[in-house]
């Protein structure tokens, strides 16, 4: 037996039971260790992985965040997984998907009793200003539409970070353990996340990001604040952040008026 499968702390059978009555929407694979759940799931999507395919790993050795940043994980300190989800239409139809996924994650954490969850455009999950999680979405064209591989990583405990490494973080690290007397069991937390993801992705499929935009705006940490938008580390523009439009584009009030900013390689900073 492949040792990466034999000792995983996530039990697919137990997780499946917790997903009732939506258990038929997911196929679950659990590994004790892999390079990256998103990389593996993308490879499998090219081999016919279906919508609802879930890959969860206790430990990722080459997990990826936005712009190629690494995301290390361990079963003691984090929950990392990737979910494949199929959509009809082309890539333009998926504008704002990462923001919608953020709403689903926020719903789940709040349902588990976590207060102080905020969202930052386009893909950060914050807890009292610190980064508690991140989202990475990668797309694959499939017959009749698109397959999104949605990668999510959450800190359960604070990661061990050397002082000299902290300067590399835009936000200080945060963890669910800071907000809860007891961190939820990973099976229950993952089940809650999957159920909320399915609900939000159904809403998104029907009505796009506009279906959950008000929820995102209500949790937007930098709403109406002066911000700087960087492109590859260089100042692109600055202004008052008005949130996101129904396509998920960032809205900035600048000296030229309201400008729409699409994701690409843009990065948002508070001024």
From TrEMBL:
Keywords: Ligase
PROSITE patterns with a match to the protein in the record: BPL_LPL_CATALYTIC
GO cellular component labels: cytoplasm
EC top class named in words: ligase
Every BPL/LPL catalytic domain range: 10-205
GO function terms (MF aspect): biotin--[biotin carboxyl-carrier protein] ligase activity
EC annotation from Swiss-Prot or TrEMBL: 6.3.4.15
CDD domains named in the record: BPL (cd16442)
The protein, known as: Bifunctional protein BirA
Taxonomic source organism: Candidatus Accumulibacter cognatus
Lineage: Bacteria, Pseudomonadati, Pseudomonadota, Betaproteobacteria, Candidatus Accumulibacter
Gene name as annotated: birA
């Amino acid at each position: 037996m492949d040792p990466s499968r034999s000792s995983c702390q996530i039990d697919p059978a137990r997780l499946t039971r917790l997903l009732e009555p939506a258990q038929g929407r997911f196929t679950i694979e659990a590994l004790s260790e892999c390079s990256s759940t998103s990389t593996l799931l993308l490879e499998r999507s090219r081999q016919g992985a279906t919508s609802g395919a879930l890959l969860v790993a206790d430990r990722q050795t080459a997990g990826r965040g936005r712009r190629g940043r690494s995301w290390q994980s361990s079963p003691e300190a984090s929950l990392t997984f990737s979910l494949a989800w199929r959509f009809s239409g082309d890539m333009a139809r998926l504008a704002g998907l990462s923001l919608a996924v953020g709403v689903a994650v926020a719903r789940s954490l709040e349902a588990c009793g976590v207060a102080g969850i905020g969202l930052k455009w386009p893909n950060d999950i914050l807890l009292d200003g610190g980064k508690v999680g991140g989202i990475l979405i990668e797309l694959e064209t499939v017959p009749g539409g698109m397959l999104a591989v949605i990668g999510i990583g959450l800190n359960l405990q604070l990661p061990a970070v050397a002082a000299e490494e902290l300067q590399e973080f835009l936000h200080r690290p945060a963890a669910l353990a800071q907000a809860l007397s007891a961190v939820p069991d990973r099976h229950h937390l993952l089940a809650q996340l999957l159920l909320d993801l399915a609900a939000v992705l159904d809403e998104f499929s029907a009505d796009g990001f506009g279906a959950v935009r008000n929820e995102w705006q209500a949790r937007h940490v930098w709403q109406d604040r002066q911000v700087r938008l960087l492109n590859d580390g260089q100042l692109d523009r600055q202004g008052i952040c008005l949130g996101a439009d129904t396509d998920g584009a960032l809205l900035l009030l600048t000296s030229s008026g309201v400008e729409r900013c699409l994701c690409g390689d843009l990065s948002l900073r508070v001024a």
